[in-house]
Design a protein that fits this description.
9 strands; 5-stranded antiparallel sheet; two-stranded antiparallel ribbon
Length: 197
C-alpha cells in the first residue's frame, strides 16, 4: 500500500524491533544494541512531522510506549484499539491523506454513494462522480458543484488552475483518485484573472 502512493519515498518509516531498537525502513544498518531513546532522537533530528502513525500491539506496543517521550508531538494525537483488518483500513486512509511537497489538501469527511451510474463522493460544495469510460481507454472522473455545474475556475493556493476532469487507467483506484481530487478542490480558491496576472 505504501509503495502504491506517489512520492512514498518521502515518508519517514521507522521499524521498532524490541531486540535491536529502532531503525529506518529498508536500512541496512540494523543498529548496534544501544539506547533506543538515542536512536529515536537521531532519526527525528531535523524532522517536524505533521502526522505520526504507530501500528503495533501487545509487547511491541508496550515497548514503544516506554520510549513515547522521545516521539515528537503532532497536531492531532489519537489512540485507538483496532483489529488487524481495521488497522489495514486505517493505514490506507492515512496514506491517502499524504501530501506531496507543496500540496494542500482539505480535511473533512467524504460522503460516498454508489449509484447505478457508478461511485460518487461529496465534500463541501464539491461532488466527484464516475463519468463513464474514456476513449480510447480509461475511466473518467469529473468534479462538479452541488448544482451539477462543472467545477471550473478553481486554483490551488499556489495559483495552479485545477482541472475538473481526470482519466484513470485502473478502475480499482477510483475511490482514491476521487478522494484526492475532492480534497484538492475543497482546499482551492476561486480563480480570478487579476490575481493570475
Amino acid at each position: 500500500m505504501l509503495q502504491a502512493q506517489p512520492r512514498h519515498e518521502m515518508a519517514h518509516i521507522i521499524i521498532a524491533d524490541v531486540g535491536r531498537g529502532f531503525r529506518a525502513w529498508r536500512s541496512a544498518d540494523l543498529h548496534q544494541i544501544g539506547d533506543p531513546a538515542d536512536q529515536l532522537r537521531a532519526m527525528f533530528a531535523g524532522i517536524e512531522p505533521d502526522d505520526l502513525l504507530i501500528i503495533a500491539d501487545g509487547e511491541d506496543l508496550a515497548w514503544i510506549d516506554r520510549h513515547a517521550g522521545m516521539l515528537p508531538l503532532c497536531r492531532t494525537m489519537e489512540r485507538t484499539r483496532n483489529s488487524a483488518i481495521q488497522q489495514r483500513a486505517q493505514l490506507r486512509a492515512w496514506l491517502e491523506r499524504g501530501l506531496c511537497e507543496g500540496e494542500v489538501l482539505a480535511g473533512g469527511h467524504i460522503r460516498w454513494t454508489k449509484l447505478a451510474q457508478g461511485l460518487s463522493g461529496r465534500l463541501g460544495e464539491f461532488v466527484a462522480r464516475y463519468a463513464g469510460k474514456a476513449q480510447p481507454r480509461g475511466h473518467r472522473i469529473v468534479i462538479e458543484l452541488r448544482d451539477g455545474d462543472p467545477a471550473i475556475g478553481f486554483m490551488t493556493p499556489q495559483g495552479k488552475l485545477l482541472s475538473p476532469e481526470a482519466i484513470i487507467t485502473n478502475k480499482d483506484h477510483m475511490r482514491r483518485h476521487m478522494a484526492g481530487m475532492l480534497r484538492r478542490f475543497a482546499s482551492a480558491i476561486p480563480h480570478h484573472r487579476d490575481a493570475a496576472a
